[in-house]
Amino acid sequence: MNVLFVCSRNQWRSPTAEKIFQGYLNHNYRSAGTSDSARIKISTKLMEWADLIFVMEKKHKQLLISRYGTQARSKEIHILDIPDEFAYMDQELIDMLKVTIKPILLASM
């Protein structure tokens, strides 16, 4: 399964999620951002690649649907409700990601 993590600038939240889940359940993980200033920008190619998408905020899901329409609507997208107030690999962020994402990944097997 290909799992995509999305935040705004792809600097802290989504790269942290990508890093901590690498190798988990033998899935493939990538991250991207919705902003023009994102380190790695969301793209049609990434949307096609992803089987499951986790977004940090509701606005990220809305942006995906706005930009990618039917393609985004055909994906399973989960909103994590994690605000942009954490640094890369912040322990509290890691704990939040693990608690919210692991049950969804296990259920999707």
Automatic annotation (TrEMBL):
Q: InterPro entries under this entry? A: Ptyr_pPase, Ptyr_pPase_sf, UCP029416_PTP
Domain (Phosphotyrosine protein phosphatase I): give its ranges.
1-103
Xref: SMART domains: LMWPc (SM00226)
Record's Pfam families? LMWPc (PF01451)
Q: What is this protein called?
A: Phosphotyrosine protein phosphatase I domain-containing protein
Organism for this UniProt entry: Rufibacter radiotolerans
